[in-house]
């Protein structure tokens, strides 16, 4: 049941984004930023963590989960380092995920040979 719940929640988030892309004039970058900010704001309000525990990977994998991760890192770093935590907390919390994306993206570029569209 956990897999089904994660699939449905992740699918609903992606469907909402697809609707925004299809029905509005918002550019994809603005929609992605909106997802990250939404996750951070919901994390600040204490809503996202219980939702993520219930939804599993369906809530933590999309960009809303990244925003929540940034918020948790900033909140933890502010508790430890004060106001300087605002600047370093997000980097510390998300460093592994960003590094993984870069490494696997690079490895994928070595395996597959992209072609330019003509």
From TrEMBL:
Transmembrane segments: 6-22, 29-48, 91-112
Coiled-coil region: none
Domain of life the protein comes from: Bacteria
Record keywords, A-Z: Membrane, Transmembrane, Transmembrane helix
PANTHER family membership: STAGE V SPORULATION PROTEIN AC-RELATED (PTHR38450), STAGE V SPORULATION PROTEIN AEB (PTHR38450:SF2)
The protein's name in its UniProt record: Stage V sporulation protein AE
Classification of source organism: Bacteria, Bacillati, Bacillota, Clostridia, Lachnospirales
